[in-house]
Amino acid sequence: MKKILAPSVLAADFGKLAEEVRVAADAGAEYIHIDVMDGMFVPSISFGMPVIQSIRPCTDKVFDVHMMVEEPGRYAEAMKKAGADLLCVHQEACRHLNRTIGEIHSLGMRAGVAINPATPVSMLECVLDQVDMVLVMSVNPGFGGQEFIPYTLKKVSQLRKRLEYLGLKTDIQVDGGINLGNVRQFLAAGANVIVTGSAVYHGDVAANVRAFMKEFEEFQE
Hints:
It is a single chain. The chain is an alpha/beta fold. 33% of the residues lie in helices and 19% in strands. The chain is built from 8 helices and 8 strands. It has helices at 17-27, 49-55, 76-82, 97-106, 152-165, 183-189, 198-201, 205-218; strands at residues 4-7, 31-37, 62-68, 86-90, 110-115, 133-137, 171-175, 193-196. It has an 8-stranded parallel sheet. Helix 3 links the parallel strand 3 and strand 4 (86-90). Helix 2 runs parallel beside helix 3 (76-82) and helix 5 (152-165) runs parallel beside helix 6. It is globular.
């Protein structure tokens, strides 16, 4: 499957956010990963629709919006208007997950579903044929700069095998603690959309993006 880099702007310099987004996109990143946090589902608070809307003109790359909020379906229409292309909601945060996925699709966005490290892959069995992407969190969500939890690699592998058994070519995204030193472990497990914050936005952004793209090109499945 096609390998996609999704730099997380949570690690970017907010004082020049538009420029940081543009540099990563121009260097080869196909997705821009945007973490929305409400201080309820996760302890942190990040940003919302006005910020997303303000950076939308910077690039035509996919805005991959990760909703770490309670009952994210409430904001689906507003996120669409702000510029989201792919809206990813947490299984743990949706009372009626099927309904939320349907609402996202009805608004013309792609739908993703995320699971926390301790949530088993089996919890998604009933919606695997409805989503465009599954995000396996490799850290507990809410803070950047954490080390990935090793057992999440097994979850990625389990999920890829299940998707293949069902004949689905659904994207698997991973997020948390991923860097140039461990990214091939996630690719080997079956992930194809890689979220990384610090490993892109700390240092030379363009060079860091190109380094990840090189890893993708050289990786042999």
